[in-house]
Amino acid sequence: MYDSTCHVDQAIAEKIQERNRCQRNGESTTKLNVAIRSLLPNLKEKIDQLKDSLLRAVSARQITQLEGDRRQNLLDDLLTRQRQLQATFKNDGAEPDVIRSSLMTGGIQQGKTNPWLLEESEETRGLGFDDIRQQQQRIVQEQDAGLDALSSILSRQKQMGQEIGNELEEQNEIIDDLANLVENTDDKLRAQTRRVTLVDRKSTSCGMLVVIVLLLIAIVVVAVWPKH
């Protein structure tokens, strides 16, 4: 479609140039004017079709945003040339640069690849709109499946995290109980230690008292014991 539009653009430029030459030579330009008048609406229609096609391609994400911008620049260039050709046609005898550029561009484009297809990928080359749409649907389905798998993994990780948290809480409760048990045992041990110390002191006091009593008895016995 782009190539066809460029060909119409080139044809208009050629006919305007020929008409201007005929005017300078005093020849009739009626047929050329009729042909140009019929080609100008054709050029506008083709440019409108390109605009609609580009809009659909960008909306359906059949091309990247970068490629859409590149093609929009080509369209803007065609629109500028169309307006200039129309103005030139109304201004008899004028040959602005747009005619020369159209003729030169047309000659250069022969044998070259359509610039709208320069960035087409191998995956979409040769495919129609329906095939590209189905391919995109498959890609979206694969992406959805990947997101579902990722969501499942994240859900399992969340569940594992909750289980680990519960286990830590149980371990903390066990540690708290063990700390309380150790503290109670330590208190009991200190109490028993105090009791043993008290009993030991009492035992020591009683032993000393017995020794003193025995010494007194011995003294008394020695004192009263008859000497022979």
Question: What this model shows, in words?
Answer:
- This protein has 228 residues and is mostly helical.
- It has a domain of 119 residues.
- Helix content is 83%, strand content 0%.
- The chain has 5 helices and no strands.
- It is rod-shaped and about 185 Å long.
- The mean pLDDT is 79.
Outline the secondary-structure elements.
Elements: H1 2-25, H2 30-59, H3 65-90, H4 97-109, H5 129-224
Domain T-SNARE coiled-coil homology: 137-199
Organism: Sphenodon punctatus
InterPro entries: Syntaxin, Syntaxin-8_SNARE, T_SNARE_dom
SSE arrangement, N to C: HHHHH
Rg from Cα: 54 Å
Helical fraction: over 70%
Q: Helix tally?
A: 5
**How much of the sequence is in beta strands?**
under 5%
Q: What is the general shape? A: rod-shaped
Please give the number of β-strands: 0
**Low-confidence parts:** none
* Content-based structural category: mainly alpha
Give the averaged pLDDT, no decimals.
Answer: 79
- Oligomerization state of this entry? single chain
Task: Give the terminus-to-terminus CA distance.
Answer: 159 Å
Query: Main beta sheet, described?
Result: none
Function: Vesicle trafficking protein that functions in the early secretory pathway, possibly by mediating retrograde transport from cis-Golgi membranes to the ER.
Keywords: Coiled coil, Membrane, Phosphoprotein, Transmembrane, Transmembrane helix, Transport, Ubl conjugation
GO cellular component, one term: trans-Golgi network
GO molecular function, one term: ubiquitin protein ligase binding
